[in-house]
Amino acid sequence: xxxxxxxxxxxxxxxxxxxxxxxxxxxxxxxxxxxxxxxxxxxxxxxxxxxxxxxxxxxxxxxxxxxxxxxxxxxxxxxxxxxxxxxxxxxxxxxxxxxxxxxxxxxxxxxxxxxxxxxxxxxxxxxxxxxxxxxxxxxxxxxxxxxxxxxxxxxxxxxxxxxxxxxxxxxxxxxxxxxxxxxxxxxxxxxxxxxxxxxxxxxxxxxxxxxxxxxxxxxxxxxxxxxxxxxxxxxxxxxxxxxxxxxxxxxxxxxxxxxxxxxxxxxxxxxxxxxxxxxxxxxxxxxxxxxxxxxxxxxxxxxxxxxxxxxxxxxxxxxxxxxxxxxxxxxxxxxxxxxxxxxxxxxxxxxxxxxxxxxxxxxxxxxxxxxxxxxxxxxxxxxxxxxxxxxxxxxxxxxxxxxxxxxxxxxxxxxxxxxxxxxxxxxxxxxxxxxxxxxxxxxxxxxxxxxxxx
Length: 454
Fold this sequence. Notes:
The chain has 4 domains: about 1-205, Immunoglobulin-like (Sandwich), CATH 2.60.40.10; about 210-285; about 290-370, Ribosomal Protein L9, domain 2, CATH 3.10.430; about 375-454, Sandwich (Immunoglobulin-like). It contains no helices and 43 strands. It has a 5-stranded mixed sheet, with no helix packed on it. Strands 36-43-41-38-39 form a 5-stranded mixed sheet, with no helix packed on it. Strands 1-2-5-4 form a 4-stranded antiparallel sheet, with no helix packed on it.
């Protein structure tokens, strides 16, 4: 064991239990102790050291024994006690290297930033120099930090001196990993002694997240199932978070409630096998719905006042009532009270119309001035017939305000034909056709008379 002196004594405590004290005298010895939450666990409730009148140290390593016997020690100065009264064998660990575990599962090719780098302190608690000849760190737990007290492959520690082994968890492959940090030194005067610190951690596979919701929609769009637009490379289900905007989110279904920008975040939080994916945020632009304002076509009897012009709305969505629209459009027409029978446009513009979540489109209408009736057919005197030499033909019409237009060449008369102002003299066989045109009336049917000169 390379121990020069080893002895143990039992003392009774006031509580009627017994305390075991052991005395060691050694040359160089290495003790590795983890720091913080990873400190080396001792099975004894107290650990003290005191100097006595000879070269060596007395350490109170444990208490609470009942009728112990069969004390033994190993090369690393750990003491084993057969505690018969408690029906157990107790190891009083002195210098065994700690087991370091990185508790936070970490994605492959990343560094565990939650647990942070861990440090194990190497202590020479012997009486001769301790010399390191090599050190190695596993692939997934590389050395970290660059402090002045860092252990190196050529560190020399005088008795009582320390150096630090600092390392982080940066896995390169997935799974539950258990590896070792190895120090080679001359502990217990044995050159080439290897000290191994067990390091463990869980490495998670990485995953990617794609999220491609529509970049823009119209107000009035049906609820959007975001699950059809998101996919994790792991195949795990994706959840969603509404980060802002006029919408409601129920599970993966997004319902639009207004215009503007809706920000949605896709999340895959990971599992026991996969690390969390980087969340993806997307903005959906909600554009106004189109509300069509149509001038309502109407008619008016000739000579009557132009009626009030009205309009209709179409395109309201989500069961919005017409009361979401405020103000009035401006409607105009070129028709006047005495405008001739015919069709006239009704122009419509925005005026003071307003409506949240909508934009407007305008459709013109038509105003029709309707006739009072149809003008009566003109009458000829004398009537059609055969005459000896010539005939003087008059054309009359009883429709109020009627003007007669006629032709003598057989063509159909229009309002542009010859206007009747006096009797028409017929000297050769002739066919006269005439119509009556009167304000507020439709043109009369064509009246025809044929005169034959014998």
